[in-house]
Each structure stands twice: as structure tokens, then as C-alpha cells.
Amino acid sequence: MATVPIAQPAESVEQRFRRLAAVWRRETAHLSSPTKMFAHPAYQEIIGLGRDAVPLLLRELELNPDHWFGALRALTGASPVAEEDRGDVEKMAAGWQRWGRENGYR
Amino acid sequence: MSELESLFPRLSGAEYRVTSPKDWRYNCIAWAAGDTRRWWWPGVPPEDEGYFWPPGAGDEETLDAFVAAFATLGYSPCEGGQAEECWEKVALFANAEGVPTHAARQRPDGSWTSKLGRLEDIGHPLRGLEGEDYGRVVRILRRPRVSTIQQSDTPPLG
Fold first, then answer.
1. Of A30, A34, A81, the CB nearest to B116
2. How far apart are CA B158 and CA B16, in angstroms?
3. A87 to chain B: which residues are within 8 Å by CB?
4. Fewer CB within 10 Å, N- or C-terminus of chain B?
5. Radius of gyration (Cα) for chain A, nearest Å?
6. The whole model's pTM is what?
7. How far apart are CA A102 and CA A96, in angstroms?
């Protein structure tokens, strides 16, 4: 649990994101608590990539959806989830996609 | 040893079975509550990530808030996890710090069913999921059984 492989030299932001996302998925898939999921070192390292990670997260939400809401929230400060969509992760993801388009990420 | 048994060592040698595909759309709390459309977890809107939590149930990750969430569905605390024909039961798990981690729902035959994070639903012995990640069972809740729909693993609100 909570192992993050050492970064490879000359790794691009996208490569690093993919490596960290794979670790995070593998090690938190059985957890229900977003607090626990988002506290995982790999997830925190993704947040540490900064705004460069936002387009990667938005694309991942579209192609291979998962709980990237905490990272997007931490990196952008936005809250695009409508009250009536709370908990519906597909609609939450759609809300973030919409936010991305409105903010020049697509 | 299977992936699930490595995550939950108490499942090794126990009677359990996977009863659904993996699904990222609902979690254990939702499953125990009979909802397969939403991910339930407390937070403080609009500062949180946008998960569902019953209004008025308390926005903190405390056992009281989880008991209050199930109280909105008619559940109240009771003593034991044994099967009782007229009652349906939910078990709440918490870690060593008392922070809720998981919920399981009892099936009419007395066995338990859980959604494991973004993984599958499984049928399992109640204590089979206790351990490092889920902690232990800390509270049993019950409500009057109202329908034979609950005979299946498919919850009424799916």
C-alpha cells in the first residue's frame, strides 16, 4: 500500500501522470472514502504536478473515468458539480468536462 | 491467493463470492443504502468534491454522521448481527481512530453483501472484511423489513 515508484529520468508530465494514476488505481480501488483515496501519495503527487495536470485529468475523466474530482478541485478551486448531481459520478465528470471547455482546456 | 484475499486476508478460507462487475459509480455506503447510482460520502458543500450525503445527516466523517445517514432511511442501532426475519440490517465499519470506512448490508439468509470501493460487490461473512483498511465492525443498525424485493442482491433503488 502507498508505494510510489521512483520517477524515471526525462519522464514527461504525461508519463509521470500515467505512472502515478496506475499506482493510485491499483492501491485504492477497494476504498470507499474519498478522503482516503485522495490522501494516497500517488494522488497527492499528481496534484503536485500543478496546473499541467488539469488537461490530463480532464482527458482521463473522459476516456477512462475515475475519481479525479479531488485533484481537479485542488488544482483549480472550481466546484462545477450541480447540487442535483451530487454523488452521480458520471454527471460530476460531465460537469468537469463542461468546466474544462468553458475554461479553455479543449 | 486472489486479489480480494490479499486485500482482505480474512476472506482466505471463508465462504465468499463476487456478485457484480467492478463499478466506479457507487460505493459501499450507497450499496448498503440500496442506491447503485451515486457515491455516498459526507462533505461540506461547496468546498468538497461533490459526493452525495443525505441532507441533515451531518457533514463530517464520524460514526454519528453515518448512523444519522442511515437513520434517514429508517435504520436505528441494535445489538447483534444475527439474522432476524422481520429486520434488515446494516453493519458499519470504522478504523482504529473511529473513522467510518465501510458499510455492509445483511441479506435475508443472514449472509452479508458489500460493495468494495470501485471494485465488485461480494457476498461474505460479516467479519471477513475486517482488517487493516476497513478496521472492524463498530455498529449494527436495523429497520423493519418491508418487502420481499430484498430477497435478491439487487437493491430497490438501483
1. A30
2. 23
3. 30, 37-40, 50-53
4. N
5. 13
6. 0.91
7. 10
pLDDT exceeds cutoff 60 at A1: no
Strands (E), chain B: 17-18, 76-78, 87-94, 100-106, 112-115, 121-124, 136-144
Distance CA A72, CA A55 (A): 10
The amino acid at residue A51 is R
- What pLDDT was estimated at residue B44? 77
Grid cell in block for residue A26: 491499483
Cα gap A103→B2, rounded to integer Å: 44
Burial class of residue A50 in the structure, from the number of CB atoms within 10 Å of its CB (0-12 exposed, 13-18 middle, 19+ buried):
exposed
Q: How far apart are CA B14 and CA B21, in angstroms?
A: 21
Q: What pLDDT does residue B6 have?
A: 95
Interface test mutation site (partner A, options B35, B49, B66, max chain A beta carbons within 10 A): B49
The answer, yes or no, to whether the previous bond of B100 is cis (omega within 30 of 0) is no
With beta carbons less than 8 A apart as the criterion, state whether B129 and B114 touch.
yes
Express each pLDDT in B29-82 by its tens digit. Answer: 999 999 999 999 998 777 788 999 999 999 999 999 999 999 999 999 999 999
**In this structure, are residues A74 and A47 in contact, taking their beta carbons and an 8 Å threshold?**
yes
**A86:B51 CB<8 A:** yes
ipTM computed for the complex: 0.90
- Mean pLDDT, chain A, whole residue set: 93
Tell me the residue ranges of DSSP E strands in chain A: none
Smallest CA–CA separation between B9 and chain A, in Å? 13
C-alpha cell recorded at residue B28: 459501499
